[in-house]
Amino acid sequence: MTTAIVTALVGTGIFVGSLAPALAADKVTLLTNWFAQAEHGGFYEAKATGLYDKAGLDVTIKMGGPQINGAQLLLAGETEFIIGYDIQVLKGREQNQPLVTVASAFQFDLQGLMAHDDVADIAALKGKPILIAGSSRITFWPWLRQKYGFTDDQIRPYTFNLQPFFADKDVAQQAYPSSEPYQAQEQNVKVKFFLLADGGYPPYSSTIVTTEKMIAEKPDVVARFVKASLEGWRDYMKDPAPGNALIKVDNPKMTDGQIAFAIEKLKENKAVDGGDAATQGIGVITMDRYKKIYDFLVAGGLIDPKTDWQKAIDVKFVKDLKIGVK
After folding, report:
1. pLDDT digits (tens, 9 = 90+) for 188-227
2. 92-119 pLDDT, tens per residue?
3. What are phi and psi of 55, to 5 degrees?
4. Disulfide engineering: 79 pairs with which of 16, 29, 86, 238, CB 3.0-4.6 Å?
5. CA quadruple 30, 86, 210, 66: dihedral positive or negative?
């Protein structure tokens, strides 16, 4: 029997029970932004517990990494979704790339600065050497310059090796609360971590990004993927064991200690269920918040003011879900 005939008969209600599953689930791929870790936990949870299956989706999760350009692969049709970043999407929009943010796992950027424990606050780092990656020069560094008066001569290259930080107590570096502080703890080095969002740094983090074409041609697939993913985040924060098992399959170097530390920091900072998510649901994104991100980029000379920022966001897939709202 052909697929067309099966589809037609299912549409009439003639096929039920065991015959209905003959229709294949929609296959989609999610490309993450780094090696598998707790910061991807909700997506792995949705895969591990069958939330994607229940949504009629056959989801493949592929790991990103430092040499992988997710936006390029998304635009080339190699993946249907990526874990993205607002500045990346808005800069793409500046170049007329049809990238669209449809949800956000975290309500703020987890980016911060890690310093030795004698540093009082971020302002105290003015004039001191700070290790940052090359990509950070066009994201949070201009914000630090503007807000705290940092200067480019403070910049030292960060190669994701903490030894230069350990070797010099005057050095600070970029970090995530769930990652580099754990490595410092393992080396018995006392540190302080300063979350940039606490000072007003506006971007979301771990956003779900797709393309205009995907939204136009398969809006139902986008809706089901977003909903199941955010349900995965809700469940991961309650019982992360299923998701963690899959994370460790993809990334055998990931330890139980690192995962537990990361989850603790996600909860402590209310990354998933804080901010607007507390009242509007996990994954929520808003036009007002996105306008603030655009305004920050314009003020810093990081984007052409003519960029149509409103095309970079589509809130319809999350605005009525209310996932996790009691």
Report:
1. 999 999 999 999 999 999 999 999 999 999 999 999 999 9
2. 999 999 999 999 999 999 999 999 999 9
3. -85, 5
4. 29
5. negative
Residue 80 and residue 202: Cα distance in Å, rounded? Answer: 26
φ/ψ of 213, rounded to 5, equals: -60, -45
Matching residue, tokens 């960029």: 307
| Cα–Cα nearest to 47, from 249, 306, 223, 277 | 249
Q: Give the pair of three-digit tokens for residue 2.
A: 């052909």
Other beta carbons less than 10 A from residue 77's beta carbon: 10
Indicate the SS3 state at residue 145.
helix
With CA atoms as reference, report the closest residue to 152 among 162, 141, 166: 141
Helices (H) and strands (E) in the chain, counts: 14, 10
Residue type, 113: L
Locus of tokens 């089901």:
224
113 pairs with which residues across the strands?
A: 174, 194
Instruction: Answer for the pair 61, 47: CB distance below 8 angstroms, yes or no.
Output: yes
Q: Rounded to whole angstroms, how far apart are CA atoms 118 and 121? A: 9
**pTM to 2 decimal places:** 0.89
Q: Looking at residue 313, what DSSP letter applies?
A: B
